[in-house]
Structure formats: C-alpha cells, structure tokens
UniProtKB/TrEMBL annotation:
It comes from Anaerocolumna jejuensis DSM 15929. The keyword NAD does not apply. Gene3D superfamilies: P-loop containing nucleotide triphosphate hydrolases (3.40.50.300). Keywords: ATP-binding, Cell membrane, Lipoprotein, Membrane, Nucleotide-binding, Transmembrane, Transmembrane helix, Transport. This is ABC-type lipoprotein export system, ATPase component. One of its GO terms (cellular component) is membrane protein complex. PROSITE patterns: ABC_TRANSPORTER_1 (PS00211), ABC_TRANSPORTER_2 (PS50893).
Length: 771
C-alpha cells in the first residue's frame, strides 16, 4: 500500500549539507506494526515526516496505493495528511485551549464531517482509549499517558490508513508505555502503524517488523515485502476549513486570554470612540444650524409680488439696478451716488410662463411655496339660526405653504405641531393656526363664529366646525347697475342653506414648532391654495366678474374709479376684479428655501428668468433674509475634518497594535499551527484562523467603540445643554455607526494580515518542534 523508492533528503544549513535520508527503499503492508530503530540522527524522524507529507523528499518517489506523489501539489499533500495519515507525537501535540472532544474532532472538522457524526466518532474513539469520563477536560488537566491516549483517539477518530508514531512512549514511564503500546498494537491489527523508537525491547515485544536505520539508510529489515498489492480505488478527498470553524477555534483561543483581548479591544476602540463622537457632534451641530437657518428663512421667505412695488435695491436680490462697479474698490477715489436711485420702483407682471417656471423649481432646495391671492372668497359661518360672512378684516385667512410637488403635510409637519385633529386631506378642509400661547384674538374668534366670550375653548369644540363657501353667482345678485349680496336681510341663513354651496370644515389645529418660533402663518384660518384655485376657476366666468370687466365703476358700490394711478391705496378695476376672483394669477408668491445654500440656488434660478429680458419685462423679488447671514456649514465641515484626522491617528496606532498582538498570537500558537498542518489544514486555513482572530477583535473593538461613544453622548449633551442651552446636540447617525464598525473591522484585519500570512508560511515540522 505504501512504497518508498530511493527516497533522498538532505538539509543545507549555511555551507553545510546534512544528508538525512540516503536512498530509502521500503514496501509497507496494508496492516502491520513496523518499528524503526536506529541511532540518534540516523534519519528516522525525517523518514516519518516524509511519509506523513509534513516534509518533502528531494528525489525518489513515495507511492501510495500505486499512485506516485512526484507531481503532488500543496493541496494534494494537505488532503493526503488529512485523509490517509495521522501522527502520534512524543510530546502529544494537543491544542491546549480546546477540550478533549474538540481536539479529537479537529481532523474531522478539517475534512468537513457533519457535527453530529464528528461528535459520535470522537466519543467512540475516546471510549476506546478509556477516556470517556474526561471528555470535557482540557489537555492541561490530564496526565502524560492520558494525553497520549487523546492523541491516539484523535488518530483513530479520523480513520486513517496509516498511523505514524514518533516515539509515542518517549515521555512516559514503563508501565504507562506498555499500556500505550498495547493500544497501538491493537490498532495495528487493522491499519499500517509505523513507529519510530529508541527502545529495541518495546520494538521486539510489540512490532511485527523491525527496520534498522543507519546514516540515512536501511541496514536491516526483519520482514521485507517484495511485491506491492495495489488498491486501484484510492482517491483523496480535498480538505477545507470553514470560516465558522476558524472563528470557533480562535474564539476558544481568545477565551483563554480574556484580559488581553479585552484590553486590546478597549485600546483599539479609542480611535473609533473619538471619530464617532466627532461625527455625532458635527452631525448634531449641522442639524441645529440648518434648523436655525430654515427657522429664520421661514420668517423671511423670498417673495415675488405682482404689480408696482417700491423697495430698497439691496432687498431685491437682482442687481440690474446696481450702479457701483463692485464693493471694496481698489481705486483711490470717492464716488458720488444718488440715494434716491436706490429705491426701486418696478412693475412686476406675472405671466402663465412665469408661473410654470416657478413650478419647475427643484423641490430639494425649496421647503415650501405659498401663493397669496387678494380674492375675497365668500365664506359664511352659522350658528344654526343665523348666518353671516366671515369678516376677512378681522381674521387672517391665508393659504398655507405646500411642497412644490404638492405635499402640504410634509411642509406643515416640518415646522408645525398638529395640536388636534388631522392635516387637511382635501381642499374642503381648513386648519386653525394658533400662536405659541395657543391664543387667538377675540375679534378673530368672533369673525370665525367661535365663542369669543369664553376664556377658553376645548380643541374638540373647534375641530369639525363648519363653514360654507358660496360661489359668486349664488352670492351676488344684480340690481340695476350694481351687485349686492343675494339676501333680503342681514341674516344670510337662506344663502347658507342653499344647495349649491361648498362645505368647509376645520380639520385640525396647528401651532409653529418651538425651534421655529414665530412662523409664516399668522394666527387664524389656513386653507389650501387648491381651494382658492377652485373658487377662482368658477368665479372668473361669473356674472359679477363679467360685469366688472366691462364697467368703469365699481359694480359693488357704484363708485367711479379714480384717475390717480400712483396712489397705491386707490381702488382700481384690477383690484376689484382680483378680489372677485377674476385672475388666476396670485398676488404674491412666497418661496421658503430649505437653507441658505438652497436660497442661493433659488435666487440664481429667479435671476435666470430675467436673463435676456427687457427691463420692464423683468420680475424682481424681495429677499428680506439678505439681512441675516447664513452660518457657513463649510466651517463646521472643516473643523470636523481636522478633528477626524487627529482621531484617525489613534486608529493607525491601533492598527499597528493589532499587528503586534496578532504577531504575538502567531508566536504563541506556533505549535497549534504545526498540529493543524499535520492534521491536513491548508496554508489558507491557517491564515483563516488568524484572520478569524482579528475579525473577532475588530468586531469587539468596533462595537465597544460605538457603545462607548453612544453612552458618552449622554453626559456630553448634558454639559452642552448646561453651557449653551442647546438640547440633544450629540447624536450618532446609525449610518456612521455602521461605517465605523466596518472601518474598525477592516483596519484590524489589515493589521493582522501580515502575521496571519507569516503563520501560514511556517514549516509544519519546525512549527511542531516549537515549545
Ligand atoms: N530541519 C533540519 N535542518 C537541518 N538539519 C536537520 C533538520 N532536521 C533534521 N536534520 C538533520 O538530519 C539528520 C536526521 O535527523 P532525524 O531527526 O531524522 O534523526 P532521528 O533519527 O530522528 O534522530 P533522533 O532519534 O535523535 O530523533 C540529523 O543529522 C539532523 O541534524
């Protein structure tokens, strides 16, 4: 079954070459107990290592079941060691941090045997060597003889064809030696056992065949075999260790060094804690800045108003009226300037194209948009018996801003708190806006038909309050030249109860958020612009509007319009038409930028409209917020980067530290590497074992770092609140946490990579010799 053909092997150290095997020719039987005797240095161990595939021969051939090993690759040798041969060493070579069962299972673990099968085979083998009582012990808790029995059980469990024993009783007393020899002899009845020994008596008593070595040659063979019987079906199954096994192996190793691992994890987590805290603070400050910015922009939206407007040019954003060449000129001259010219008088004329241009604004930079129209929607309130118009002079009725893509709720829910009820789901639903004290002016309450004499009103009594919207043709009736409200008395209950009215109701009560302070919507009633559009759509074809378009007097009062055109308060036909709902174009458009960067983008966009237009066609906007400067997020980013760079240094330190720790671990586990290799582990598997160790340490330190950072944000927030009044500034973004965990993991694996590679390159014979 096993044939050594002229095997030669020599070692060169410096200039000196030592021939260890000098042409060995031996044929072995399938099952026999062969003892190799010889003086020290005669090449016995080398021969055993060559047979076991731990060491490679220089020339000749090792034939296993008729198969030459000349062209064996590394992986073939690994598989051969795992499937066909097994070693029993003088110094037992058990893995100290694994229990007896785990040690016995290791060879099978490498060959991928299922865990149940592996376990039962291991228990059987341990029973066979008489150690069933001790299966959960660690090797250090056993006597020498017991340890050698475990090594024999490990050899048996994998069911190899060849067992190679290198002075198995060398470290044992004579009585224990005999017991071990009995055990080996028993095994040899079914397997090929090759044992190297210094003890000729043991060889005589137990071995079937004794071979003598001298100077690397066979000088005597008690029972040579001439012809080989070949088992043609011989095939080697490749081995592979799963990452889970590697993790388990390293986990158990780490468990024996809990303190060292814990300290390493703490030390290497410091960098992660630093970066996590910096990120959570900058994240929090960024949020505070942007909420402060959008809060202040909420009170100063960009506005575009139709008609003639007079304003200071520094508020109009556009600079087409600017005279000076630029601020901070270099010239040594004083320039004259006319302050009166700074005042801009311009007539903005809205067109449908302009309205569409506005609607195409990027919704990311625009938090909300609102249109105010000077339309007088005919809204009636009623107590059941009487009805009257809601007096728009007493209560603010405004349209609430919406997202440009039409989602009103997201704008409102960003800046307002819903105190009761729901956000409007249709244009028929209205919102009641209260100030930060939950107040509403008594005259507004009266106008809305609420109990203004009461000191307080419960929310539930307001939610669901109904109003009626009356369309122009129902609301106005013509009497000769003029129009008046279609009712015989001051009580408009008939009009209120008419069929063609539109029901409106208050669906919710809102108040501006605390961080926003005062906000865009004044206390009063807020409706959606869709309601106004619906009303106007109907009103523009109504009789009163048609009559007003023709008449040169106010059809509601009969008054002739005044000629004076530059009086901004004069009642003009356009104004009356607008209040009657003749114009689909709004009076004012308010744009609420998301932040200062967003504002810059919007102003550029608005300037874009004016490009290539004549001055009188241009549309100018008012930018009240130009008076407040935005805090630059850039400064924050800069500081964050510098701080991260500092914290990164500690990460590099931990990278080096992990490298050193893994290196020490490789040194400590040299013997284990040898055992694993002897059991058939591939180089890759050894790398895997150490990579698994760094993965465990990296994950621990990453998780620890994030946990510590998270815990530290609590006192940091308390201190910051105390010092600055800002609440909840430090806030770790979960995405950053995941990112940092990945960084910690990659850095530790990187740090351990070189030592892990070193471990895999170790010569198994030398590794086994390590103390
Ligand atoms: N890795 C090595 N590098 C250099 N020389 C080596 C190496 N391994 C073995 N040798 C040499 O090869 C020769 C054979 O050594 P080997 O260990 O096989 O002898 P042995 O018969 O097993 O001896 P012992 O009974 O003392 O264990 C010795 O002279 C030894 O010094």
């Amino acid at each position: 079954m096993l044939q050594l053909k002229n095997i030669k092997k020599s070692y060169t150290t410096g200039e000196f070459t030592q021939v260890a095997l000098d042409g060995i020719n031996i044929n072995f039987r399938e099952s026999e107990f062969v003892a190799i005797l010889g003086q020290s240095g005669s090449g016995k161990t080398t021969c055993l290592n060559v047979i076991g595939g731990l060491d490679q021969y220089d020339s000749g051939d090792l034939i296993i079941n008729g198969k030459s090993t000349k062209d064996f690759e590394d992986s073939d040798w690994d598989a051969y060691r795992n499937n066909s041969v097994v070693f029993i060493f003088q110094s037992y070579n058990l893995i100290s941090h694994l229990s007896l069962v785990d040690n016995v299972e290791m060879g099978m673990t490498l060959s991928g045997v299922s865990s149940a099968e592996k376990h039962s085979k291991a228990i059987n083998a341990l029973e066979r060597v008489g150690l069933e009582q001790h299966i959960h012990k660690k090797p250090s808790q056993l006597s020498g003889g017991q340890m050698q029995r475990v090594a024999i059980a490990r050899a048996l469990a994998n069911d190899p064809d060849i067992i190679l024993a290198d002075e198995p009783t060398g470290a044992l007393d004579s009585q224990t030696s005999e017991q071990i020899m009995e055990l080996i002899k028993e095994i040899a009845a079914e397997k090929l056992v090759i044992m190297v020994t210094h003890n000729p008596e043991l060889a005589e008593v137990y071995a079937d065949r004794v071979i003598h070595f001298k100077d690397g040659r066979v000088v005597e063979d008690s029972m040579p075999l001439a012809n080989q019987r070949v088992n043609e079906n011989y095939e080697i199954k490749k081995t592979s260790m799963s990452f889970a096994t590697a993790l388990k192996l390293s986990g158990k190793n780490i468990a024996t060094k809990k303190w060292r691992t814990a300290l390493t994890a703490v030390a290497s987590s410091i960098g992660i804690v630093g970066i996590a805290l910096i990120l959570s603070l900058s994240n929090g400050f960024d949020k505070k800045i942007s909420s402060y910015e959008s809060g202040s922009l909420l009170n100063f939206p960009l506005t575009v108003t139709q008609g003639i407007s007079t304003s200071m040019s520094n508020m109009t954003g556009t600079d087409f009226f600017k005279e000076a060449e630029g601020a901070y000129p270099e010239e040594s001259k004083v320039f004259s300037h006319d302050a009166a010219k700074e005042v801009v008088v311009h007539n903005n004329i809205f067109t449908d194209e302009f309205m569409n241009y506005i609607k195409k604004l990027d919704s990311k930079v625009l938090d909300g948009i609102s249109y105010s129209r000077n339309v007088n929607m005919n809204i009636l309130k009623s107590d059941g018996k009487t009805a009257s118009a809601v007096n728009t002079g007493s209560v603010n009725i405004t349209s609430f801003p919406t997202k440009i893509d039409g989602d009103s709720e997201s704008y409102l829910s960003n800046y307002y708190e819903l105190l009761a009820g729901d956000y409007p789901k249709s244009e028929n639903e209205l919102l009641l806006v209260v100030d930060k004290f939950n107040q509403l002016d008594v005259s507004a309450m009266e106008a809305l038909g609420l109990d203004y004499k009461a000191k307080e009103i419960n929310f539930e009594d307001i939610i669901g309050k109904e109003y009626k919207l009356i369309l122009n043709d129902n609301y106005y009736k013509q009497k000769g030249e003029t129009f008046s409200i279609n009712s015989d008395s001051a009580n408009l209950i008939d009009l209120y109860n008419e069929k063609d009215t539109i029901n409106l109701k208050i669906s919710g009560i809102i108040r501006a958020n605390e961080d926003v302070g005062s906000a865009a919507l004044p206390a009063g009633l807020a409706y959606s612009d869709t309601l106004a559009e619906f009303f106007i759509d109907n009103a523009k074809d109504s009789n009163i509007v048609k009559a007003q378009e023709k008449a040169d007097y106010n059809v509601l009062t009969g008054e002739v319009f005044s000629e004076v055109s530059d009086n901004p308060y004069a009642v003009t036909r356009e104004k009356v038409l607008m209040s009657l709902g003749a114009s689909v174009l709004p009076n004012t458009i308010s744009l609420y930028p998301s932040d200062f960067t967003g504002k810059d983008i919007i102003t550029k966009y608005l300037d874009g409209w004016n490009k290539n237009l004549n001055d009188d066609e241009k549309i100018i906007y008012t930018d009240m917020s130009s008076l407040i400067t935005g805090l630059s997020g850039g400064i924050m980013d800069g500081i964050t980067l510098v701080l991260i760079a500092f914290a990164a240094i500690s990460l590099v330190v931990s990278l080096i530290m992990i490298g050193i720790i893994t290196y020490i671990s490789v040194m400590e586990r040299t013997k284990e590497i040898g055992v694993l290799r002897a059991l058939g582990a591939r180089k890759k598997d050894v790398t895997r074992v150490f990579n698994a160790e760094t993965v465990i340490i990296g994950t621990c330190s990453g998780l620890l770092g994030i946990l510590l950072a998270f815990i530290l944000t609590i006192p940091i927030n308390i201190v910051l609140e105390h010092l600055t009044g800002l609440t909840g500034v430090a806030e770790l973004n979960p995405l950053h946490a995941v990112l940092l965990l990945t960084i910690s993991l990659s850095l530790t694996v990187l740090g351990g990579f070189i030592p892990a590679k070193m471990a895999s390159k170790m010569n198994p014979v030398e590794a086994l010799r390590a103390d």
